[in-house]
């Protein structure tokens, strides 16, 4: 009876996840039925480093190891103007040669199979750093897109592997990619609103992004900080001059962004967002959660006793 209940719970959760997920998730399975991907016992088939340069904003996501075969890094993204280029750099771990492929869903239809959406493919599987320069199509609609980076052990991923369910070893990572209009601003821009985790774990980087901001060329950005959430004195943050900003927040602080149209000199400022890092406590959700490369229904904790605790 218990097994039947657990099976029904699993099926229900699977359907909930499928309905909530717009993009398909590729799957890695060992020939003997084990879920391997990058989580195999050797742990070496990984996208260890991925970064971009040359964009208006860029991604740096290095030394990440295995993140469970598939991860959507929703707080990380690159951006570029229509018709301009972005440099990609990627590398696997030190043990097993990997081939890479990168896609961008330029038309936002929930897949990566349209013309020109496969933007990079490896010449061969290798341990070396792999680089490329891609051009954002001049006809790409401005706005937020999904970018997918996938590696496979000892082979070059096929153009249809973005949703392959029968791969053996490798890893897949998704990122955001924003296409900016090549049209220059000419009036007052829209700053939009700031999106960020308002209660980050202590010592963890907070990523700030703009939602609903003007997607035009010739815009300048300046992030500011106030030392309290009710302060009226704001200070410019040195170097914080792109549409995104990342920092370890040292205590309760307020942040905002000024967006200026360089063509007209007009500007707009977001409403402030108050960030209050959590403090460590026994009930904090900031404690790390261990993961296991294999699971078993017989190797479990049956009982814990400590003083009056008996569970």
Secondary structure elements and pairings:
Elements: H1 2-20, E1 47-53, E2 60-62, E3 70-81, E4 85-92, E5 98-104, E6 118-121, E7 130-135, E8 143-153, E9 170-180, E10 193-195, E11 206-211, E12 219-226, E13 235-236, E14 245-247, E15 253-261, E16 267-269, E17 273-275, E18 305-306, E19 309-310
Parallel strand pairs: 3-9
Antiparallel strand pairs: 1-2, 1-4, 4-7, 5-6, 5-8, 8-9, 10-11, 11-14, 12-13, 12-15, 15-16, 15-17, 18-19
What does this structure look like?
The protein has 311 residues and is mainly beta. It contains one helix and 19 strands. It has one helix at residues 2-20; strands at residues 47-53, 60-62, 70-81, 85-92, 98-104, 118-121, 130-135, 143-153, 170-180, 193-195, 206-211, 219-226, 235-236, 245-247, 253-261, 267-269, 273-275, 305-306, 309-310. The longest helix is centred in the N-terminal third of the chain and has 19 residues, at 2-20.
What can be said about this structure in brief?
The chain is mostly beta strands.
Main features:
311 residues; 5-stranded antiparallel beta sheet; 1 helix; 19 strands
Number of helical regions: 1
**Average residue-wise pLDDT:** 85
Count of individual beta strands: 19
Low-confidence stretches are: 1-21
- Along the chain, the helix and strand elements come as HEEEEEEEEEEEEEEEEEEE
Structural class: mainly beta
Shape: flat
Distance between the termini: 23 Å
Please give the largest β-sheet.
5 strands, mixed
Looking at the chains present, what oligomeric state does this protein adopt? single chain
Radius of gyration of CA atoms, rounded to a whole number = 22 Å
Largest sheet strand order:
3-9-8-5-6
Helical percent range? under 10%
β-strand percent reads 35-45%
């Amino acid at each position: 009876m218990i097994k039947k209940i657990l099976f029904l719970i699993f099926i229900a959760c699977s359907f909930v996840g499928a309905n909530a997920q717009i993009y398909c998730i590729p799957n890695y399975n060992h020939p003997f039925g084990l879920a391997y991907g990058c989580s195999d016992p050797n742990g070496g088939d990984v996208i260890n480093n991925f970064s971009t340069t040359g964009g208006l904003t860029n991604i740096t996501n290095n030394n990440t190891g295995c993140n469970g075969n598939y991860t959507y890094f929703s707080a990380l993204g690159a951006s570029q103007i229509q018709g301009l280029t972005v440099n990609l750099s990627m590398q696997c771990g030190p043990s097993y040669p990997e081939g890479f492929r990168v896609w961008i869903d330029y038309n936002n239809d929930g897949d990566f199979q349209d013309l020109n959406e496969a933007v990079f493919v490896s010449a061969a599987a290798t341990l070396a750093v792999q680089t490329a320069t891609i051009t954002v199509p001049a006809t790409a609609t401005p706005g937020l897109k999904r970018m997918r980076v996938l590696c496979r052990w000892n082979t070059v991923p096929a153009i249809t592997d973005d949703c392959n369910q029968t791969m053996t070893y490798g890893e897949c990572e998704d990122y955001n990619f924003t296409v900016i209009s090549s049209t220059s601003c000419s009036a007052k821009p829209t700053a939009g609103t700031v999106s960020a985790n308002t209660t980050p774990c202590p010592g963890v980087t907070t990523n700030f992004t703009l939602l609903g901001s003007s997607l035009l060329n010739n815009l300048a950005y300046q992030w500011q900080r106030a030392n309290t959430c009710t302060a009226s004195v704001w200070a410019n943050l040195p170097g914080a001059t792109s549409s995104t900003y990342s920092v370890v927040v040292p205590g309760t602080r307020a942040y905002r962004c000024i967006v200026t149209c360089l063509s007209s000199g007009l500007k707009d400022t977001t409403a402030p967002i108050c960030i209050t890092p959590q403090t460590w406590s026994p009930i904090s959700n900031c404690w790390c959660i261990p993961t296991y490369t294999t699971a078993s229904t017989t190797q479990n904790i049956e009982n814990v006793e400590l003083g009056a605790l008996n569970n």
